Amino acid sequence: MKKYLFVFSLILLNTSFTFAQSVTELEIKKLSMEKWKWMADKDVAKLERLFDDQAKFVHMSGSWKSDRELEIIETGSIWYKNAEVHDTAVEISGNTAVVWNRITLTAHVRGSDVENEFTVTEVYQKQGEDWKMLVFTFSSVRDTHEIEH
């Protein structure tokens, strides 16, 4: 009987741990999707709360920190009009979450709408009760690129 109780306890513990992980993964995925909407809406107030002060943003044309990214979004220098997300993978390690989104991005840049395929890597860190974005990197890819899960 003790053997069955022990096995049952292990299964229950494993199920609880798996469920907890998936809840965190869903929370991060939702946050990542909301971020795309906030960028399209140029909602710098919400983005400012999301971005860590020292976050690094890597784009096709350069890299910079949070203050510059917020300025770019607010002024419309780059207007992230729409990010069509094709695939997402999330991995959690302690208080760090990594998100990979394969997207088709429609953006308004230098007076023209452009469309590009990217895999975007986002790194988040749990700071107190909030998740903060530390890294946001665009990697240009073909539309046949797949994210390994």
TrEMBL record:
Domain DUF4440: 29-133
InterPro entries for this protein: DUF4440, NTF2-like_dom_sf
Alphabetical list of SUPFAM superfamilies matching this protein: NTF2-like
Stretch forming the signal peptide: 1-20
Keywords of this entry: Signal
Protein name per UniProt: Nuclear transport factor 2 family protein
Organism: Cyclobacterium plantarum
